[in-house]
Design a protein that fits this description.
Order of helices and strands of chain A: EEEEEHEHEHEHEEEEHEEEH
Largest interface: A-B, 77 and 93 residues
Distance between the termini of chain A: 56 Å
Oligomer: heterodimer
Distance between the termini of chain B: 49 Å
Number of domains of chain B: 2
Shape of chain A: globular
Shape of chain B: globular
Number of strands of chain B: 18
Radius of gyration of chain B: 21 Å
Structural class of chain A: alpha/beta
Radius of gyration of chain A: 22 Å
Bound molecules: flavin-adenine dinucleotide, adenosine monophosphate
Strand content of chain A: 25-35%
CATH topology of the largest domain in chain A: Rossmann fold
CATH class of the largest domain in chain A: Alpha Beta
Structural class of chain B: alpha/beta
Strand order of the largest sheet of chain B: 7-11-6-1-4-5-12
Number of domains of chain A: 2
């Protein structure tokens, strides 16, 4: 099985983020990690390889040079190869562009199955998976909770739907997005880390991929972030008064009913 | 291209989802701004009643009624919706940021190579430019996104972003006929639905969320009772889900669901950042914790420092009384 995994390096939840004084840019503390949901994709790929011996796992990210760190972690976990599609000179915020570049990479490398996270925790889009699948004209399934490779060139996947579960058999090639519950991502062994240090991370220019010229244009993005702002600050907490639980409950209800009028 | 607005109407067991009415209400305002028409788009099977009840909310109700559309699947829904877009040439296409909306809107946007903004929470106008408000980094930052005006725009909105206004329009129902074919690469093996009359967590107006402080699955009973009383839902922190006291479906936070109810009530939840990220756009946040130094108090509007097992039964009775007064 030829497996591709798309991963993204994202600012850690704890990273400090400051909005510039003109509200046009963000300054993000240099604390980056592999996107939470992408770890399940890497882990699942490794589990497939453990079952189906002649599998190959290729990890790929479209991002700046610092993303190499995430690629190395994926190699340390057990992936075979890793590619950095260098975004330095191109647009990287518009999901259409990112998906198109990743799809072009997938087309070039070939694959049976693409795994990626359900959502990036920085832009919170949850777009790339379905968009890349559309560009590749292959089926996708979002938020899978179980994956079994069948004998007949198909996979059986279980996924979360509104208030329930759905099980599908899908003809390969396919794109699947992963989330918590699918598996428990492993922590790399030291031997893996050593191997990752020695593995060459191949850097490629998106211009070497078969994507339309317009996509790589400086002004290609069809969505533009006009400004950033901090979320509205809540007033300091009001601790409801009262000695007994009864008094506190009454005070809370009064506040909800009379002050903020939500009940 | 017209400046018309499409709203994808999602329903569940024959009932229109609240978020769809929210989007129609906002859609009416947007169409007003653009001096254009608002279309409610309903696709499914035996959807007459739904279409009828949508007339007051839109200038036209476009329906595609076909047995093959009974259950949602991205292949059929994307194809049908794409055909409607070709027929009507709308400018803005709005949908809910639900499991369904998140599943096929990106595919549609890619099919038309048109910009998409997902999980948005607001809209504004700068002269004639539409600006869309979208949270980033778990709500730590809000961004305003503009799209190039020469192309169609797809936007999905988080439930509870807008209020529902009374409908005063009188749209006509337009039945569109579109041939539906299933993608042969997909084979449904089984669909398991826990049929529940309860609202979805993300759409609930009232959420009472239990944390590790609830101390066992059986103790969620009182939270359930309060949720039922308020027509709301019980949510859970990750510790609770990891301990298998509640299903993952209930998890609120960075690795779970993002919710923004009118009232979020956290009981025995410490308020870790990963949890806060999933609920800090709630309108009113109430924290109930016996530890006065619990971090959740930094994010709450109202705090109750108390043992939840003492407080909740009394709170339930008080709420019951308020309900009976109305
Ligand atoms: C990558 C990552 C992703 C994560 N994603 C999520 C997520 O999506 N959602 C999430 O919730 N967490 C998430 N977490 C975990 C998060 O960091 C916290 O560990 C978790 O939220 C803590 O859950 P808790 O508040 O229920 O438990 P605790 O932190 O143990 O807090 C229990 C609280 O209950 C109070 N308490 C105890 N008994 C009572 C009583 N009788 N009455 C009143 N109060 C009482 C205590 O004072 C305490 O404050 C994530 C963590 C990581 C690393
Ligand atoms: N720049 C990128 N490079 C590689 N994979 C990405 C990139 N952006 C997003 N992804 C993948 O797509 C998933 C969904 O991202 P998003 O649509 O941005 O929320 C992520 O979890 C990643 O697996």
């Amino acid at each position: 099985m030829n497996i591709l995994v798309f991963i993204k390096q994202v600012a850690d939840t704890e990273a400090r983020i400051i909005i510039s004084s003109d509200n046009k840019t963000l300054e993000i503390e240099n604390k980056y990690v592999i996107n939470f949901f992408d770890e399940f994709a890497i882990e699942e790929a490794i589990r497939i390889k453990e079952k189906i011996k002649d599998s190959r796992i290729t990890i790929c990210t479209y991002g700046p040079a610092r993303s190499i760190e995430g690629l190395r972690t994926a190699i340390a976990m057990g992936a075979d190869r890793a590619f950095l599609i260098d975004s330095t000179n191109y647009e990287s915020d518009d999901p259409l562009i990112v998906a198109e570049i990743l799809a072009a990479f997938a087309k070039k490398e070939g694959f049976d199955c693409i795994l990626c996270g359900r959502q990036a925790i920085d832009d919170e889009n949850a777009n790339i998976g379905a968009m890349a699948a559309e560009f590749l004209n292959i089926p996708h399934v979002n938020c899978i909770t179980r994956l079994d490779v069948l004998e007949n060139g198909k996979v059986r996947v279980e996924s979360e739907i509104e208030g329930g579960k759905k099980v599908l058999d899908i003809t390969l090639p396919v794109l699947l997005t992963t989330q918590k519950g699918l598996n428990e991502p492993r922590v790399p062994f030291i031997t893996g880390v050593m191997k990752a240090m020695k593995t060459e991370i191949i850097t490629i220019d998106p211009a070497s991929l078969d994507v339309p010229k317009e996509t790589l244009d400086k002004n290609a993005s069809k969505t533009i972030i006009f400004s950033y702002e901090a979320p509205p600050q809540r007033l300091p907490v009001k601790i409801v008064e009262g000695v007994t639980s009864g008094e506190k409950a009454k005070a809370l209800i009064k506040a909800l009913r009379d002050d903020v009028k939500v009940i | 291209m017209s400046k018309d607005v499409f709203v994808f109407v999602e329903s569940k067991e024959g009932v229109i989802r609240k978020v769809s009415l929210e989007l129609l209400s906002k859609g009416k305002e947007i169409a007003g701004h653009l001096a254009s028409r608002l279309h409610a788009v309903v696709i499914g099977y035996q959807i007459n009643d739904i279409a009828e009840s949508l007339k007051v909310y839109s200038d036209s109700v476009i329906t595609v009624d076909n047995e093959l559309l009974k259950e949602y699947s991205w292949d059929t829904y994307t194809a049908v919706f794409a055909e409607l877009i070709k027929r009507y040439n709308p400018y803005m296409i709005l949908g809910p940021s639900t499991v369904t909306g998140k599943d096929f809107f990106p595919r549609l946007a890619a099919r038309f190579r048109s910009p998409m903004v997902s999980d948005a929470i607001g809209v504004d106008f700068d002269d004639n430019t539409v600006k869309i408000k979208k949270p980033l980094f778990g709500g730590k930052i809000l961004s305003w996104v503009v799209c190039r005006s020469d192309s169609m725009i797809f936007v999905t909105f988080r439930p509870n972003s807008f209020s529902i206004e009374a409908g005063d329009l009188n749209g006509a129902i337009v039945e569109e006929h579109i041939e539906v074919t299933r993608d042969p690469r997909l084979n449904i093996v089984s669909v398991e639905k826990t049929i529940s009359k309860k609202v979805d967590l993300q759409e609930a107006d009232f959420i009472i969320c239990g944390g590790r402080g609830v101390n066992g699955p059986e103790n969620f009973q009182i939270l359930e009772e309060i949720a039922d009383l308020m027509n709301g839902r019980v949510g859970a922190s990750r510790s609770v889900v990891d301990s298998k006291w509640r299903d993952y479906d209930d998890q609120i936070g960075k690795s779970g669901k993002t919710v923004s109810p009118k009232i979020y009530m956290g009981c025995g939840v410490s308020g870790a950042l990963h949890h806060i990220m999933g609920m800090d756009t709630s309108k009113v946040i109430v924290a109930i914790n016996k530890d006065p130094n619990a971090p959740i108090f930094q994010y709450a509007d109202y705090g109750v420092v108390d043992d939840m097992f003492d407080l909740l039964p009394i709170l339930k009775n008080e709420l019951q009384m308020v309900k009976e007064e109305v």
